[in-house]
Design a protein that fits this description.
The complex is a heterodimer of chains A (about 375) and B (about 525). Helices cover about 35% and strands about 25% of the residues of chain A. Chain A has about 375 residues and is an alpha/beta fold. Chain A has a nine-stranded mixed sheet, with helices on both faces. A five-stranded parallel sheet of chain A has the order 3-2-1-4-5, with helices on both faces. Chain A has a two-stranded antiparallel ribbon with strand order 6-7. In chain A, strand 9 and strand 10 form a beta hairpin. The two termini of chain A are about 35 Å apart. The relative contact order of chain A is 0.10. The C terminus of chain A is likely disordered. Chain B has about 525 residues and is an alpha/beta fold. The chains are: A alpha/beta (about 375), B alpha/beta (about 525). At the A-B interface, helix 2, helix 6, helix 8, helix 13 and strand 15 of A face helix 7, strand 4, helix 8, helix 12 and helix 13 of B.
């Protein structure tokens, strides 16, 4: 069954020029500037696609503006299984997500932005699929459909065609108060299992791995084959690094930097200071993946790998590991490094050799946006 | 006074025939005969003896084959009905075949290859009985050497990946012959080149380095220089790439490769737009191939058979695949491949009917005609691009605003974001108007891709009709999206779902793979 939760205040800050909607104060000011929430409309637009394909579909949802209204506007029948308290907060989204899954939702649609994705991710039991209807101001997380109608189209396919393939995608969020001072510092908050349509875009002609998980596994395998004895490898956060750890048979903290030497972990969830201590003990190399959609290698979600740490590493301080598709999805935009130290960033800028599989690499441009005086593109 | 003629509709009505047609085995009627096979004449029988008795015992069937028993006319009807239930190659406008050039193959050429002088030949026949065919092979090789500017050509491979494999196999043999086989372990390609280049290099044991385009969407020379080293065995690039973008700095690319002692291999899968205009040799390439079955006339339908022409410089000539046809001034002979050759890639002399088609095609056009083909293909493509880019929601990413060679990889991403209708759904709906629009756009660098390649075969009115159909479907995607989403409506078969086939967790392409994947189901 399809579940729907709407963050009714998502996106309210955008039209008001407030770069996000977090916090009561921002929401109040947005209201004063004449902004009105748009998440409900966008959720209804998504569901109208589902309604056209499957007019009898039942959607489990939350009472009122958190879902029920949008389901009705789309012409579908809501099954309300959760009522929010009078004043809604972020934890309501988390509680609602959990309630919808308990009521039988196997695909949870959520309308909102990165903050909503975070709240959904923390409420969702293992194995349940989720998909974002983009309705926020900032959406760094690659867990959203490209548009509301595209989300509805995927939901219709989910119900019509049986199970679609699902992939693990990162949930990221930035601190909006920093964002308002023109600093983008996305953090990694976890992953969601997102449905995608392999058969809709792929045909069987080339040796491209059809399945994204298989592509991540290949990239990790390619990296594993390049590891040498006697070298400390500083494995960054993210799904690709988790897969590399699996290849090596070692545990991995999902959001931390772990140091691996000769097939065993010598430091887990290391801080910058821990890493400097490790690097001082012998030859070391950082291993990082690419933040999907954004292209950051360093400076986002892995700040432990600081300029000082990178500076202490050898001639090839960083090994970059990612499936080719992650490069392709950047649509021609460069990879980015932002360690905060212009000298280190300049040293890393130019071209990176990205390990994409066993015996396959790609050469891809790397920029240091801070040095170029450009604000990070979203 | 001219008769009043109704204006041609923007897109015509099409409805596929639908037959309740059983499979042919269900049509079988015991005792019904097709053709009566002529009895062997007594003189022949006496001379040859009992040929069946001469078969080894192990080759003989113990029971007759379970073939359907039907009169010839019923067989004909059966297959004609089936042929009406699809978008036949001679029926639709197939400029949307993706990266597979579809062009009109003159029907007179089909008559040539159907003649018993060709169709009744056997590849092991004595060379003396095959002088005409061997001459055609030899002369076609010489003509393709002229078209490419290269020194030697072999028509032995079957085009596409087989020809690309021959390219890398020759490069490997060359380096090994020069004692650099151990040192040169890397092959460089570009993300927009046909993926078979990367795949063939990988299969040949090389590490593959893929280059991404520069900020303008062109192959990035700086990235190439960064990737080149004494470890480089070769660059393997397609030009124009599968996006239709021509690398204007191709000479610099080849020179840079040569600068580190690497070879340069040219994938001319998209040669339709360069015939008589550019030559591989003039850019300095060491080896190139043509897909003879595409560029030189044979329609590429349902997977083959293909024919490749591998063209090389004199330095690489000893490594060409074989056997080869040689001429001693008067006579043509088939000789086994030489000691340095990479050997046979396919059986015998390649696909001879395709070689004859290509020979006839080139002879009919002449040198000026080949150039006119390229010019027309490029004009057709850029005219169609102008029409397509007028459709709201369609775009041509990379090298934006620039012209292309003979094809363009377009994107429906904007329309998809607006409507949720995908490129594949548009393609299926386009078939309701009798238009072919396929889904091969590897690598998937362009979101919601569609690749159109009109070649020189299509008239302006057909290109207009094709563009009008896509404009109509794009309008439907906005106004009546359910019509598009639930297409096709005018066809025998509804659309299929690929997901099972694309999911490595579920697929099993061979019985052995199936048993490995599902040991419980079959007992390992």
């Amino acid at each position: 069954m399809i579940g729907l939760v709407v963050n009714p205040v998502a996106g309210v800050g955008g039209p008001a020029g407030l770069a996000g909607s977090d916090g009561e104060e921002v929401q109040r000011r947005a209201g004063e500037r004449g902004a009105h929430p748009r998440a409900g409309e966008r959720a209804a637009a998504a569901l109208s696609v589902l309604a056209a394909a499957r007019p009898e579909e039942l959607v489990v949802t939350v009472a009122g503006p958190m879902g029920e209204d949008a389901v009705r506007d789309a012409g579908l029948r809501p099954v309300v299984v959760w009522h929010p308290p009078a004043a809604t907060t972020a934890t309501d989204t988390t509680d609602a997500a959990r309630a919808l899954v308990d009521a039988g939702a196997d695909l949870l649609l959520f309308a909102g932005g990165d903050g909503t994705a975070r709240d959904v991710a923390s409420g969702l039991p293992e194995g349940v699929a989720a998909l974002g209807i983009p309705a926020g101001v900032k959406m760094y997380s690659p867990v959203f459909a490209v548009g509301p109608r595209a989300a509805g189209s995927l939901a219709a396919a989910w119900r019509g065609e049986g199970s679609l393939p699902v992939v693990d995608r990162e949930v990221l969020d930035v601190d909006e108060s920093q964002l308002r001072r023109a600093r983008v510092e996305p953090r990694l908050y976890g992953t969601l299992r997102v449905p995608y349509r392999a058969g809709r875009t792929q045909a069987r002609k080339a040796a491209t791995p059809a399945d994204e998980r298989a592509a991540v596994r290949l990239a990790a395998r390619g990296a594993a084959a390049r590891l040498r004895p006697g070298i400390r490898y500083l494995l960054g956060p993210g799904g690709t690094m988790a897969e590399l750890a699996r290849e090596l048979g070692v545990p991995k903290t999902p959001l931390g930097v772990d140091v691996v030497l000769d097939g065993r972990v010598v430091a887990a969830a290391a801080s910058e200071r821990d890493l400097l201590e490790q690097v001082a003990q012998g030859p070391s190399q950082a291993v990082v993946s690419i933040i999907g959609g954004q292209g950051f290698l360093l400076g986002r979600g892995n700040q432990q790998l600081s300029a000082r740490v990178i500076d202490a590493l050898g001639d090839e301080p960083v090994m970059v590991v990612a499936p080719e598709q992650k490069l392709i999805d950047l649509g021609g935009r460069p990879l980015l490094v932002d360690t905060g130290d212009p000298v280190v960033d300049t040293r890393l800028a130019g071209f990176a050799r990205v390990v994409t599989g066993p015996g396959t690499t790609s050469i891809y441009p790397v920029h240091a946006p801070e040095n170029e005086g450009a604000l990070h593109a979203t | 006074m001219s008769l009043p003629i109704a204006p041609k509709p923007a897109h015509r009505r099409f409805h596929q025939a639908r037959w309740d047609e059983p499979v042919i085995f269900e049509l079988s009627t015991p005792g019904e005969r097709g053709v009566l096979v002529t009895r062997v004449e007594p003189g022949v029988r006496d001379a040859v003896g009992d040929v069946v008795a001469a078969l080894p015992e192990g080759l003989a069937r113990s029971t007759p084959p379970a073939l359907p028993e039907m009169a010839q006319m019923r067989v004909l009807k059966h297959y004609l009905r089936l042929s009406q239930e699809n978008l036949g190659a001679d029926l639709n406008v197939d400029v949307g075949q993706g990266t597979c050039t579809m062009k009109y193959a003159p029907k007179v050429n089909e008559q040539l290859i159907a003649t018993p002088k060709l169709s009744a030949m056997h590849p092991l026949q004595d060379d003396a009985d095959a002088q005409g065919v061997l001459e055609i092979i030899w002369r076609t090789e010489r003509m393709l050497a002229e078209v490419s500017g290269m020194d030697e050509v072999s028509l032995h491979t079957q085009g596409g990946s087989a020809a690309i494999w021959a390219n890398i196999a020759m490069i490997r043999a060359f380096h090994e012959a020069n004692d650099e086989g151990d040192q040169r372990r890397e092959v460089i390609t570009t993300i927009f080149s046909h993926p078979s280049n990367a795949a063939a290099a990988k299969a040949a044991g090389y590490d593959v380095i893929t280059l991404h385009p520069d900020a303008d969407g062109y192959p990035d020379l700086e990235a190439l220089k960064r990737a080149l080293s004494p470890r480089t065995a070769a660059i393997m690039v397609t030009n124009p790439e599968d996006t239709g973008i021509y690398n204007p700095a191709i000479k610099e690319w080849v020179d840079a490769a040569h600068g580190v002692g690497a070879l340069a291999s040219y994938d001319q899968a998209n040669a339709n737009g360069i015939l008589g205009i550019t030559r591989a040799r003039d850019a300095g390439f060491d080896v190139c191939h043509f897909n003879v079955h595409k560029t030189f006339g044979t329609p590429h339908g349902s997977g083959g058979p293909g024919t490749g022409a591998n063209a090389v410089s004199a330095a690489l000539a000893p490594f060409l695949p074989g056997p080869r046809v040689v001429r001693d001034g008067v006579r043509y002979d088939v000789v086994e491949a030489g000691p340095q050759s990479i050997g046979a890639i396919g059986p015998f002399h390649g696909v001879v009917p395709n070689i004859v088609r290509a020979y006839a095609w080139i002879m009919a056009l002449g040198a000026d005609g080949l150039r006119a083909v390229a010019e027309t293909a490029v004009l057709n493509n850029n005219y169609l691009m102008k029409r397509i880019l007028e459709i709201p929601g369609a775009s041509a990413p990379y090298a934006t605003g620039r012209r292309r060679i003979e094809q363009v990889r377009y994107s429906w991403q904007e329309l998809f974001e607006e409507t949720g209708i995908s490129s594949e759904e548009i393609g299926i709906r386009a078939s309701d108007f009798g238009m072919h629009y396929w889904t091969s756009h590897h690598p998937y660098v362009v979101p919601q891709p569609f690749t159109l390649e009109p070649t020189e075969s299509y008239s302006k009115s057909e290109l207009d009709e094709y563009a009008d159909v896509l404009a109509e479907v794009a309008r439907e995607a906005r106004e009546t999206p359910e019509v598009v989403r639930t297409a096709p409506h005018n066809q025998t078969v509804h659309h299929t779902h690929h997901d099972d086939l694309d999911d490595p967790e579920r697929w099993a392409v061979t019985w052995r793979a199936y048993r490995r994947k599902y040991p419980d189901a079959v007992g390992a």
